[in-house]
């Protein structure tokens, strides 16, 4: 018994006839019939009956179909894996990430990768806030922020730490706290704050710090991305939070940043990637490039 015989039975079951299955598989009808005969002999029981111009599976044949479909899916996975190992003269790199990482941290690495590998297409899915928003098997790498809930991963994947950053408070230059050099969480408590979405790594880290000190901010505004944080803060609606790295990239906001007194307020990011044996060539090259270029 071999996989080709089993897949032929599946093709006949789905097509309803030997002739149609032969067309779908690109084989002659005699070859299809011979595979079915060999499989029937090896199983030792009839797998199908001919009725009219078509074929119908017996209960034994029907019982095999779910497992054969799983086999076909596994073989397709293997085929996809082999395809992704082809030369980087043509190929693709598929990335998913949060909006902050996609907009502020990945671009210099992507620019270097594309300049060195112009034949590789880049697919970037940004704005991912929950693991349920992605299918890891369709990606090369998923960049996510620390404090995000991590589900059980397949054995073929691993989590690696990536960049870290100091979390700072941002405010207008006219804010009452503008003259304070380093802010404590107690300093911030009387003022409204501007949060990112609940899954934000910066927000989760700060909320945890506030809870540890039994501090509740006066009230808050919730927005969906760091650009909106900057806009709301600029409008005087509250104190915002982001990494110092992100703040440095937005001089157009014309805001102040203030360090926070807690030394533990560090933002962290991670990568979910396949194990080395299952990485595409494009991903392996991209990871090597990220390791050789310091973030600037």
From TrEMBL:
Residue ranges annotated for the HTH lysR-type domain, each copy included: 1-58
UniProt keywords, alphabetically: DNA-binding, Transcription, Transcription regulation
Record-level Gene Ontology MF annotations: DNA-binding transcription factor activity; transcription cis-regulatory region binding
InterPro entries the record matches: LysR_HTH_N (IPR000847), LysR_subst-bd (IPR005119), WH-like_DNA-bd_sf (IPR036388), WH_DNA-bd_sf (IPR036390)
Domain of life: Bacteria
Gene3D superfamilies: 3.40.190.290, Winged helix-like DNA-binding domain superfamily/Winged helix DNA-binding domain
A Pfam entry, by short name: HTH_1
Family: Belongs to the LysR transcriptional regulatory family.
Name of protein: Transcriptional regulator, LysR family
Organism lineage: Bacteria, Pseudomonadati, Pseudomonadota, Acidithiobacillia, Acidithiobacillales
